[in-house]
Every structure is written in structure tokens, then in C-alpha cells.
Write a structure and sequence with these properties.
Layout lengths: L1 H25 L4 H19 L11 H24 L2 H10 L1 H10 L7 H17 L8 H4 L6 H32 L5 H23 L4 H30 L4 H23 L6 H18 L1
Helix pairs in contact: 1-10, 1-11, 2-9, 2-10, 3-8, 3-9, 4-8, 4-11, 4-12, 5-8, 6-12, 11-12
Length: 295
């Protein structure tokens, strides 16, 4: 069962980027409506896992609002990054966002810094260095159209920060719950409330900024949005199941590395992305870095 849980989780993580890429190839508009629909589906999946039970806890409210803001930035930023740059490198940067949670653990919760973490940070710097190296003239064609550009950098940083702080806020809620109740409680309720707020934020933003093209955007986006939202929900469900049968640090390492590798395969085989050789080296080093950072 651990292998099945792991494979489904990795596939679900990668499929979120895959469905986003499908939509971005159809149209360059409607990002907010697309994410509105995807968030609604993810919320529905969470509701199913909770048996459609919800308990409103006042102490959870601030964490839910902060999670909603982080989720909004993460989903919007990563969607735009996939639209404007390489899918494979976007997936790597998304996985790197766990560094924010690691730093929170070290600086705020006083988690120990292991040799693996130091090695992972060192390789992270090497990975980012290679990713940003300019290709030689003969590699110019590999960079054109699929390489790094300013828009991609801005959007991927927004997604990076949003995704990282989603994890931090989840940890903050768990710490608060343990202090308040002596154990971790109401995690699903906190997440559902956050997703509900994020859904309405996306919906209002879409109605204001995309009102002239809502019908067209819905036509292009409803099916990939269902796929993305369902993949998000399944990734959360099966990662929780995986944590019950595998050490969490090992599970996170395998999920992060496997997700990046599978996203790279999608990008190259299906979408014909071409990275220069330095970016491939950076991607490979990045996978090793992710494994070490999660051990």
C-alpha cells in the first residue's frame, strides 16, 4: 500500500501543473475564473473527506484568512508562471517553497538543523545558479520561447512565497491546536474555511476583471479546472494516507522529487519544452537537493 499511496500522490501533484498547462495552451485569459473553479472542486474534495461535517472554531479564523491569502497568491502565481515560462522549472521552484517552512521550523520552532539540510541548501544554491546560467550561442534555440524571463521570475516568486506560507500557516494552526487542546484538531475545518475564502476571493476578482470574457473562459477552462481541483484534493488525501504508513520526512522527499521529475517528463514529452544543458543540470541537482532537504 505505501507504494500505491506514494505513486498516486506523486501523480496527483504533477497533474495539477499538467491541467494548468492544458488550460494555458488554450487561452491566455481567464486565469482567475479558472482558479475559481479549481478551488471550488478542491473544496468539494475536502468536504467529502470530512464527511461534509464542519465545525467553526473562532481561534481558527485568523489562520483560515492567512491560509486563504497564501493559497490565492500560490495558485495565481504558479498558474501565471506556467503560462509564461517552463513547466519543469516552475514545478521545481514550487517544490523549493518548502524551504520557507523549513526556515520557520528552524528560526521559530527551533527545529534542529541536520547535515542533510545543510547539504540540501548548498545544492539548492548550485541548482539555482545553473538554472540562471546563460546558454552559449549554439544553445540559443533551446532557450527561445521556453526559457526564463522577467514575467516568469515575478510570477514564480509570488507562487513560491504563497505556497511556502501555506505550509507555514498549516504548521502554525497545528501548534496553536496542540497548545489549546493538547492535540492537533480541526485541521480539515481550518483548511475548508481557508479554501472557501479563497474561492470567493477568486470569484470576486474574476467578476471584476474578467467579466467581459466569462463565458469564453468558462468554456475553455471548466474541464481542466475540474482536473486540477480533483488532483489537488487527491494529493492531499493520499499524502495523509501515506504519512500513516511511511516516515513523513522520507515521504515528503519522495513526493517532492517524484513530482518534479514527472512534471519534467510531461513538459518534455507532451509539451516539447526545450531547456538548455545548464537548466537540465540545475533541475537534476534540484531533485537531489529536495530529497536532502526533506530527510
Amino acid at each position: 500500500m505505501p507504494v500505491i499511496y506514494l505513486l498516486i500522490t506523486i501523480l496527483s501533484v504533477s497533474m495539477q501543473s499538467f491541467f494548468t498547462k492544458i488550460y494555458s495552451n488554450k487561452t491566455q485569459k481567464g486565469v482567475l475564473l479558472f482558479n475559481t473553479m479549481a478551488t471550488l472542486v478542491a473544496l468539494f474534495i475536502f468536504a467529502i473527506t470530512a464527511g461534509f461535517r464542519f465545525t467553526f472554531i473562532t481561534g481558527n479564523f485568523l489562520y483560515s484568512l492567512l491560509f486563504a491569502l497564501s493559497y490565492f497568491l500560490a495558485i495565481f502565481g504558479l498558474t501565471m508562471a506556467i503560462k509564461t515560462g517552463p513547466l519543469s522549472l516552475t514545478a521545481l521552484m514550487e517544490s523549493y517553497s518548502m524551504i520557507i517552512a523549513s526556515l520557520y521550523g528552524v528560526l521559530v520552532l527551533h527545529d534542529p538543523v541536520t547535515p542533510f539540510m545543510w547539504a540540501g541548501f548548498a545544492l539548492l544554491v548550485v541548482s539555482l545558479t545553473f538554472i540562471n546560467l546563460e546558454p552559449k550561442k549554439k544553445d540559443a534555440e533551446a532557450k527561445r520561447g521556453n526559457g526564463i524571463n522577467l514575467k516568469w521570475v515575478i510570477f514564480v516568486l509570488i507562487g513560491f512565497c504563497g505556497n511556502g506560507f501555506c505550509t507555514v500557516i498549516q504548521k502554525m494552526q497545528q501548534v496553536w491546536s496542540e497548545k489549546t487542546y493538547g492535540e492537533v484538531l480541526y485541521t480539515n475545518d481550518f483548511m475548508m474555511a481557508g479554501l472557501l475564502v479563497a474561492f470567493f476571493a477568486f470569484l470576486v476578482a474574476a467578476l471584476i476583471t474578467e467579466r467581459d470574457s466569462l463565458k469564453e473562459n468558462f468554456r475553455y477552462g471548466w474541464l481542466p479546472a475540474i482536473g486540477k481541483g480533483a488532483a489537488n484534493g487527491l494529493a492531499n488525501i493520499f499524502s495523509i494516507l501515506l504519512y500513516t504508513v511511511m516516515v513523513i520526512s522520507l515521504a515528503n522527499a519522495l513526493i517532492a522529487a517524484g513530482g518534479v521529475v514527472l512534471a519534467a517528463i510531461f513538459a518534455v514529452v507532451i509539451y516539447k519544452e526545450k531547456l538548455n544543458r545548464y537548466q537540465w543540470i540545475g533541475l537534476a541537482v534540484g531533485v537531489v537537493s529536495l530529497v536532502l532537504l526533506n530527510l
